[in-house]
From TrEMBL:
UniProt keyword list: Lyase, NAD
Protein's UniProt name: dTDP-glucose 4,6-dehydratase
Encoding gene, per UniProt annotation: rfbB
CDD domains documented for this protein: dTDP_GD_SDR_e
Domain of life: Bacteria
Lineage per the UniProt record: Bacteria, Candidatus Kerfeldiibacteriota
Molecular function per GO: dTDP-glucose 4,6-dehydratase activity
Organism whose genome encodes this protein: Candidatus Kerfeldbacteria bacterium CG08_land_8_20_14_0_20_40_16
């Protein structure tokens, strides 16, 4: 089988390529990535010389290239996106271009080339925000209610994916997944930002009161969920994928990090809140469990510790990132 992975040089995409080549060694992977600020071929060094792996540098918005790359592809796993909410608040237009237009260009090429399965990676953020201290969780029937330019662009892409299925019969599936953590995550996201700041002796910025809730999912559990959807998922279906059963707010999460790293709470810095900050996400993954046998295997405490150890052991990976464009972004976002 030949799989086209878009955005495979990013955080989840590169973890997925490692996972897939390890678990399906006879399959071929073509990784198409534009290498934006967060695309990093260092994430894929170990598979560079694997004969079943090929890298193509390109933009999902370039129709002609996408049409060429799509030839002979059996399945597409579409990760490529602008993925950071804070950047979408600073500059929404690239989110519209890549996440919406880019997805439509891929869908068109997949249809033309009779791809057998187009899997779209989406987010739980399309469902909006839940209330604190409310047992409700997102599921596949939750009404879409995106509240940031990022989630609005992902919601639009989900609708396009389903429209190509219903209108033209393209065989699609979608996963709406919660907050991933693990190796190779660009240090603009809360966990890698906090861990690397702490290693550098810097403070950890906490937005607002810190009582925002996210559903933390170790990236390898996410990769296994995608595998299950690719092999057992029903065409035309959406699956919600999460990692937790109980709520953990940002302060509780960061206090776990502080404990593992032997730091006290004086390193927390309460900063201006994110505009339109969604209060709580929680995912009901029972459909994926019942239909596909999905269950998260990586518990938060153990895998948080493993993640911290990875950033401690791979300083050169994130120090190179933090010395580039990142400085300018950090200044703009945090004012220092
Ligand atoms: P990331 O920002 O780390 O990586 C995105 C990758 O896409 C990069 O390699 C980048 O170079 C590439 N890319 C961006 N624009 C492109 C374009 N126009 N053409 C080709 N490549 C392009 O993102 P991530 O955190 O790995 O997220 C991957 C996907 O998963 C996204 O679709 C995101 O919406 C979704 N998602 C992420 C999370 C999370 O917690 N990180 C959770 C749920 C869903
Ligand atoms: O829910 C899935 C989504 O998770 C994905 O679709 C997105 O691509 C991914 O970026 C992530 O979005 P979040 O906005 O939830 O992740 P982030 O790591 O940016 O923030 C997590 C929480 O931490 C959120 O409540 C905001 C807060 N935060 C974040 C940063 C960067 C802080 O308090 N301080 C910070 O400096």
């Amino acid at each position: 089988m030949k799989i086209l992975v878009t955005g495979g040089a990013g955080f989840i995409g590169s973890n997925f390529i490692h996972y897939w080549l390890k678990n399906h060694p006879d399959d071929k992977i073509v990784n198409l990535d534009k290498l934006t600020y967060c695309g990093n071929l260092e994430n894929l060094k170990e598979v560079e010389s694997n004969k079943n792996y090929q890298f193509v540098k390109g933009d999902i918005c370039e129709g002609e290239l996408i049409n060429k790359v799509m030839k002979g592809i059996d399945k597409v796993v579409h990760f490529a996106a602008e993925s950071h909410v804070d950047r979408s608040i600073l500059e929404p237009s690239t989110f519209i271009q890549t996440n919406i237009i880019g997805t439509q260009i891929l869908l068109e090429a997949a249809l033309k080339n009779e791809v057998k399965h187009f899997h779209h990676i989406s987010t739980d953020e399309v469902f909006g925000a839940l209330k604190l201290d409310d047992p409700a969780k997102f599921n596949e029937n939750t009404r879409y209610d995106p509240r940031s330019p990022y989630s609005a662009s992902k919601a639009a892409s989900d609708h396009l994916v389903m429209a190509y299925h219903i209108t033209y019969g393209l065989p699609v599936t979608i996963t709406n997944t919660s907050n991933n953590y693990g190796p190779y995550q660009y240090p603009e996201k809360l966990l890698p930002l906090a861990i690397t700041n702490l290693i550098e002796g810097k403070k950890v910025p906490i937005y607002g009161d810190g009582k925002y809730v996210r559903d933390w999912l170790y990236v390898e559990d996410h990769c296994r969920a995608i595998d299950l959807v690719l092999t057992k998922g029903r065409i035309g279906e959406t699956y919600c994928i999460g990692g937790l059963t109980d709520d953990v707010n940002n302060l509780e999460l960061i206090k776990k990090v502080l404990k593992i790293m032997g730091k006290d709470e004086s390193v927390l810095e309460y900063v201006k809140d994110r505009l339109g900050h969604d209060r709580r996400y929680a995912v009901d993954w029972s459909k994926a469990k019942n239909e596909l046998g999905y269950q998260p295997e990586c518990d938060l405490d153990t895998y948080l510790e493993k993640t911290i150890q990875w950033y401690q052991a791979n300083e050169s990976w994130w120090k190179r990132i933090k010395s580039g464009e990142y400085q300018e972004y950090y200044q703009r976002q945090y004012g220092k």
